Amino acid sequence: MTPGLPMSVPAPGLPARVRIHEVGARDGLQNEQTVIPTEVKAEFIRRLADAGLDTVEATSFVHPKWVPQLADAERLFPLVSDLDARLPVLVPNERGLDRALALGADRIAVFGSATESFAKANLNRTVDEALAMFAPVVARAKDAGAHVRGYLSMCFGDPWEGPVPVPQVVRVCRALLDQGCDELSLGDTIGVATPGHVTALLTALNEAGVGTDVIGVHFHDTYGQALANTLAALQHGVTTIDASAGGLGGCPYAKSATGNLATEDLVWMLQGLGIETGVDLDRLTATSVWMAEQLGRPSPSRTVRALSPSLGSHDSHKE
Ligand code: HMG
Ligand code: MG
Q1: Atom 17 in ligand 1: which residue has the minimum CA distance?
Q2: Mind telling me which InterPro entries this protein's record contains (predicted)?
Q3: Which CATH number does the domain housing residue 130 bear?
């Protein structure tokens, strides 16, 4: 066994390779109280790409008053657009699409909600008004040759509405795909999903004609279920997993959303299962340690803490 890496013991019935969709620079940093300098964000994205992440979500072209943390999108994107990695950006509407396309973005993501309460809080629209807002965005993005991801938040539970019925989620997923989205990302925005619920939603989507190949999953670790939910998704054949370096993140419009699944925790499990990711765990951990220094607090990722003596975790083994 190599120090700093898990022993690789494959389990039957799992994919050979997984694409990690890294969201730390967008989903993570959109939630920070302090303003992070644009150059630091650019360095973060560079280091993530250098660690082998081939999809690094860069920023959002949303209203700067709604998410001031990402108001520097116009300055940031050109600083990283030379990277080989795919650099998706979030756009809620045509104004956002115009801004993204003007800078040469070729992967965009719209972001809907399975629930009315979050649609209102996040987009100032009902679920169907938000879909109507996305329709010309998706059509124009496709015309421009861009890849389009359709995020869907609150797929399992909602802080205002409680548990979210599976058919309600399936309806909005279908609508996003019918508009022309190339892939979905099923968000457990407040981290309340458990593995059986994940399998039930994936099965219902398949029954509604949605292939597993267009489904990504986006788990939050609020109740410590993110890796268990990921394993359920892998067992179902999902090969796109969203994660955030160092476990950064939450959501500014869903107060009970805590950290995203940490990319390091995900990579540790995937390496242990013998699943290829292309990610260098040492480099990734070093990046999250560096980012934690920029933010002035330790990473919540268990793997980052275990692998980085400077965060004090090794001492804690002696307690
Ligand atoms: P609104 O107030 O209804 O906007 O907000 P509007 O359409 O009425 O327009 C009002 C003004 O905003 C206009 O300017 C527009 O031009 C301007 P005026 O004519 O008054 O001078 N405007 C913009 N300016 C810059 N860029 C834009 C833009 N759009 C309008 N794109 C809006 C509606 C959608 C804009 C707003 O609600 C918004 O920006 N929301 C984004 C919120 C957000 O980014 N939330 C976090 C991301 S979602 C998430 O975190 C979940 C996810 O990570 C999955 C998970 O974790 O589960 C994806
Ligand atoms: Mg998230």
Answers
A1: 63
A2: Aldolase_TIM (IPR013785), HMGL (IPR043594), PYR_CT (IPR000891)
A3: 3.20.20.70
pLDDT score for 249: 87
Domain containing 33 equals: 19-314
- Position 313 scores a pLDDT of 42
Residue 270 lies in a domain: yes
Answer whether residue 167 is part of any domain: yes
Predicted pLDDT of residue 297: 87
Residue nearest ligand 1's atom 43 by CA: 122
Please give the pLDDT value at position 35. Answer: 84
Q: What is the 3-state secondary structure (H, E, C) of the chain?
A: CCCCCCCCCCCCCCCCECEEEECHHHHHHHHCCCCCCHHHHHHHHHHHHHCCCCEECCEECCCCCCCHHHCCHHHHHHHHCCCCCECCEECCCHHHHHHHHHCCCCEEEEEEECCHHHHHHHHCCCHHHHHHHHHHHHHHHHHCCCEEEEEEECCCEECCCEECCHHHHHHHHHHHHHHCCCEEEEEECCCCCCHHHHHHHHHHHHHCCCCHHHEEEEEECCCCCHHHHHHHHHHHCCCEEEEEHHHCCCCCCCCCCCCECEHHHHHHHHHHCCCECCCCHHHHHHHHHHHHHHHCCCCCCHHHHHHCHHHCHHHHCCC
Domain count, the chain: 1
Ligand 1 atom nearest 26 alpha carbon: 53
Query: Is residue 319 one of the residues assigned to a domain?
Result: no
